[in-house]
Amino acid sequence: MQMLMPEPQIFVERTLALIKPDVVDKEEEIEDFILRSGFLIVQKRKLQLSPEQCSNFYADQYGKMYFPNLTAYMSSGPLIAMVLARHNAVSYWKQLLGPSNSIRARRTHPHSLRAIYGTDELRNALHGSLSIYSAEREIRFMFPEVILEPIPTGQRARDYLNLYVKPTLLAGLTALSKEKPADPMTWLADWLIEHNPNKPRIQHQNTEEEHH
């Protein structure tokens, strides 16, 4: 009986991350932590939302006691919006963030980002999408120009690998065999990062730009 091989897939998820207004000055060190945690910053923008835009973004929390304070806080100054990508991006980013209440996070998850940068339950420094579905909605909200294509499977995945991955990997392995470095794994990893033909660009936009 012939064994059925699983269809190849490209496991890359995207999630939305927000650096909230009160910790925008920590942008550089937070981004460094994000990159060291295995994420790619696919898109990035700095913007300031109006209270109405914040209300629309947090529409699922409308009617809760803290909602007016939340929209006032989120519209109080510029914020940084980023699209992060990696395997299991949504769940891994939530894990790095820790509990939504920063006071609780300092007790239970002292090394989480909200424990380090947050103040209390409302001012918890950073936002992360709760699910793949909410990530798609929130990314479209902050980056309306982004096209979110479905993750390739089957023949589309094979075509993608043949077109974009294998040629670069072959070139890297060829360069590795010529160079013969002492630490081939690290050398190849650095080479692939430097020669990635699809390397995402971090987009910077004006602080005063408003989301439409």
How would you characterize the largest beta sheet?
4 strands, antiparallel
Order of helices and strands: EHEHHEHHHEHHH
In what order do the strands lie side by side in the largest sheet? 2-3-1-4
Number of domains: 2
| Cα radius of gyration in angstroms | 20 Å
Family: Belongs to the NDK family.
InterPro entries: Dpy-30_motif, NDK-like_dom, NDK-like_dom_sf, NDK_H5, Nucleoside_diP_kinase
Domain Nucleoside diphosphate kinase-like: 12-150
Pfam families: Dpy-30, NDK
Please write out the topology.
Layout: E1 13-19, H1 27-36, E2 40-47, H2 51-57, H3 67-74, E3 79-86, H4 89-97, H5 102-108, H6 113-117, E4 126-128, H7 132-142, H8 154-179, H9 184-194
Antiparallel strand pairs: 1-3, 1-4, 2-3
Helix pairs in contact: 2-3, 8-9
